[in-house]
Amino acid sequence: MSEPLNISESRPAVFLDRDGTLIEDAGIISSPDQIVLFNDTIETLLSLQKQFLLFVITNQGAAASGLISCKQIAEVNEALSRELNAEGIIIEEWYVCPHDRADNCDCIKPNSYFVLEAAEKYNLDLQRSYMIGDHPHDVLTGEAEGVFGLYLLTGHGLRHINEVPLDKPVFHTLAAAAEWIIQHPDPRKTLQEAIRDGAQALKDGKLVAFPTETVYGLGADALNETAAAGIFIAKKRPLNDPLIVHVHNLEQLEQLTSSIPESAVKLIDAFWPGPLTLVLPKSPAVPDIVTAGGSTVAVRMPQHPLALELLRQAGTPIAAPSANVFGKTSPTTAKHVAEQLSGRYEVLIDGGACRVGVESTVLTLVGEKPVILRPGGITKEEIEQVIGSVADRGELSENHMASPGLLPSHYAPSTPLVVTDTPLKFCNDEHIAIIVLQPSEEIFRGSVFALSPDGDLRSAAAMLYQTLRLVDGMHFTMIVAERFPDKGIGVAANDRMTRAAAKK
Ligand code: TXA
Ligand code: MG
Fold first, then answer.
1. Atom 3 of ligand 1 has which residue's CA nearest to it?
2. Domain count of the chain?
């Protein structure tokens, strides 16, 4: 039962973008028959309206160039409103901005006119209100008034993800964003508290799961041997597989290593904070358990603002592998972490979905030539632009120090996985889930999942683990995934898929 409405008390609201957030973004939607609701829209709005007043703000820029009339926009909104009403959903107001974004109108700028109007008319508590959209402008709407922006990867989300400030959480679906909202009632404060509790837990030698830009990590104080040992137990990870140590600043890097080559300095300059892990000679400060007894240590500075803030407050480097049971698919949301490791950490910091979505590149700078031990978020091409030619792991002699995380079988879903260049050959069997890089004209079957609206490799990689997990939970007998082109981030995606597909 929801609380009875007390009109003298200010109430929180959720402002929702229409196209790409509530309904599919089908370009210019000029008639009601073009409306296609996302399959989680109704259920999500029903759950949100128990606590929040709901508003829709929609920018219909095509009206500025005469491609659609205000009457048509109103017809579509009225039809959608009726459809939602029929399900018991009340949208308090439908605000339409008919301007081109470049016109700099007052409607949806950061201190949005619509948000202020709604706040006044409905006595809203904007500090506890949210804006959800699939476009950077949506997310920033109302920001100046304290409205907290959440960014969706539906609609145009994947295309514009690089334009969204790093401190704005991103979500794979509207339902995931709504769950986060309900768990973060005073969003800035709730996040601050989670970080503070996480930092304290780390200082106390406990485990903390936290987001990075690549995947969620399961962290412990890297300088505390007992705490680091706890990671191996929680993950059921073999002790011969060393951990990556995350740092907040270069002093910590110096503390962990015995020497830092010139090439490392250049790479750090170019890619830190970011998804590049450097393997360097270790210092005595690093406990043996962290490096699996080896003489080198793997270090990276994560880019995620919550990870950096956790590191800052903990005041110590954090050893953290991906927060999954050893050998399984890495988690790219807090929910993934809880599904596999619930009860095994003290604090789980929920920062939404990870934007890169595959693990960091592991590059060793120990030895004659730099070698990529694990392809990842920073591509070989990008590294070579900074330090010249680097080798792939395949080029190593057998006695070269291996990266044990590169076991042939890893990152695996429970459902058998096959990786192929021709996934659509399997499209006649409805028991088989098919994962393709981009939607294809020929196929409309429900068991085909496209990673990216336009086949962009970075966005496809960002959706890979999320999609593998989703499909793994759907009781298919087999998953067939399309191989990425072997370039850029595609190398990392193929590496993970091949390992995930390998027989155990
Ligand atoms: O993106 C990432 O790297 C994520 C996030 C949480 O930062 N972490 C991650 O950690 O993927 P993990 O433990 O799942 O993978 C670490 C990889 C393994 O392949 C491990 O063998 C390798 O790094 N590694 C760690 N220390 C090493 C060392 N001293 N020499 C060679 N390889 C090392
Ligand atoms: Mg949109």
1. 360
2. 3
Give me ligand 1 centre to Cα 258, in Å.
19
Mean per-residue pLDDT of the chain:
92
Q: What are the residues whose beta carbon lies below 5 Å from ligand 2 (ion)? A: 17, 19-20, 134-135, 155
- What pLDDT was estimated at residue 1? 46
Q: Is there a single domain that holds both residue 55 and residue 148?
A: yes
For 165, other C-beta atoms within 10 Å of its C-beta total: 12
In a domain, 352, yes or no: yes
> DSSP code of 139?
H
296 close to ligand 1 (CB < 6 Angstrom): yes
Which residue puts its alpha carbon closest to atom 21 of ligand 1? Answer: 405
Ligand 1, closest atom to CA 360?
A: 1
pLDDT > 70 in the chain, percent:
94
pLDDT band at residue 427 under the 50/70/90 scheme? confident
Are 463 and 158 spatial neighbours (Cβ–Cβ below 8 Å)?
yes
Contact between 298 and 319 under an 8 Å Cβ cutoff? The reply is no
Q: Find the CATH number of the domain harbouring 58.
A: 3.40.50.1000
Kindly give the number of the ligand 1 atom that is closest to the alpha carbon of 359: 1
Q: Is 461 in the pocket of ligand 1 (CB under 6 A)?
A: no
Domain ends where: 155, 183, 211?
A: 183
Residue having the nearest C-alpha atom to atom 13 of ligand 1: 321
Based on the domain organization, do 209 and 145 belong to the same domain? no
The 3-state DSSP class for residue 269 equals helix
CA distance 176 to 154: 11
Measured in angstroms, how far is the CA atom of residue 24 from the centroid of ligand 2?
9
Q: Answer yes or no: is pLDDT of 399 > 50.
A: no
Domain membership of residue 446 as a residue range: 417-501
Measured CA angle at 281 (ends 280, 285), to 5 deg: 110
Ligand 1 atom closest to Cα of 376? 1
**Is the same domain home to 307 and 447?**
no
* Domain-embedded: residue 3: no
Q: Which of 183, 206, 229 is the last residue of a domain?
A: 183
Q: Report, as an integer, the average pLDDT of 429-446.
A: 81
Residues 107 and 231 reside in one and the same domain: no
- What residues pair up with 218 in beta bridges, in sequence order? 209
Using a 6 Å cutoff on CB, does residue 416 contact ligand 1? no
SS (H, E, C) 136-176: HHHHHCCHHHCCEEEEECCCCHHHHHHHCCCCCCEECCHHH
CA of 191 to the centre of ligand 2 (A): 26
**Ligand 1 atom, smallest distance to 362 CA:** 23
Phi and psi at 287, nearest 5°, equal -60, 145
| pLDDT tens-digit series, residues 23-57 | 999 899 999 999 999 999 999 999 999 999 999 99
Distance from the alpha carbon of residue 58 to the mean position of ligand 2, in angstroms: 8
